[in-house]
Amino acid sequence: MSEPVHDIAAEIAARDDAEVEAAVIDLLPLDAWHRAHGARMVPFAGYEMPVQYDGIMAEHLWTRESAGLFDVSHMGQIFLSGEGLDEALETLIPADVKGVKPNAQKYSLLLDEGGGILDDLMFTRWDDGLYMVVNGAVKYEDIGHLRMELPDDITLNHMDDHALLALQGPKAVDALARLVPGVEALVFMTGDHFDWNGTQLWISRSGYTGEDGFEMSVPGEHAVLLADALVAEPEVKPIGLGARDSLRLEADLPLYGHDLDTETTPIMAALNFAVGSKRRREEANFPGAARILMERENGAIVRRVGLVIEGRQPVREGAAVIDADETTVGRVTSGGFAPTLGAPIAMAYVPTAMAEVGTRVQIVQRGKIHTGIVTAMPFVPHRYVRAGGK
Fold this sequence. Notes:
Gyrase A, domain 2; transaminase activity; EC 2.1.2.10; methyltransferase activity
């Protein structure tokens, strides 16, 4: 394994040190399972999580070629229900909640009053409410925000008794369909409830790698049985957070707290599609609507872009983007070696004038100048299975 990929593991281990020091580390349902499978564990989002098993490079490439099993049980699973839920939630996020059909999934953003991003999330319409998945590092803040801002008639259930597993890669459907017949009929951003040996699973065709794949919500007491069944399939190997990070970077999937935060708006973050509903734009009743719609019309001052870095040395989060006068004008928010491409890549916020594809930008890291070339994202094409084969 090359040294640049090792750096990802060190970066992940360091990301949540302050949080880990301030809180007791909780055990997730698969904690002992990971250790038994040889995982190297690191602190992450208040838990100990597997950063790698066989090596980040090998796990990354296995997922691109076959099927990787990820434990993402640190994420927050929430179920919302009650009269007037759709209207109430639309006061907190810019998505067209009312337009989401049963079993359909949608990406959106929890916004503060100035249009800054409190978190990004996925929600799905179940028969009796909305199932939502939020980021692990801020799930308790999200839950507090939702409870404070939603009317008392809305019930919020934190599904902390459930684990969340993700099976990702081009052969994920082959492996999972043997265990749970019928999942092959799902298409990207849809899901359904399935019975697996008497256990109810919620399975959606989605993920965080850019590959085809599935996410599975399972009662915590059955998580080990499901993980064992999945890795018994020849296409499947357990994959750690290190490869999850490099896979999502190649796929242009931003990470909250790094590429997204309260200082960035959806337009700055190049997430214009998150405010794509004509009705919601016309109503303009989501937090920060005036600012966000102005930026959507006229452009934001800065923009998240993808960079291919010349040479072999990756640039990391926090590296400064400078102009011709060596003045800092932007910053790198994610960076690392891309195993699929065999080259270092990064995400950065730069002035909109520097955001055009092909623009060369200078980056300072530890006193050394690096050159990045703005490139279209995703760096590696998505391979989602969409309705109608689109």
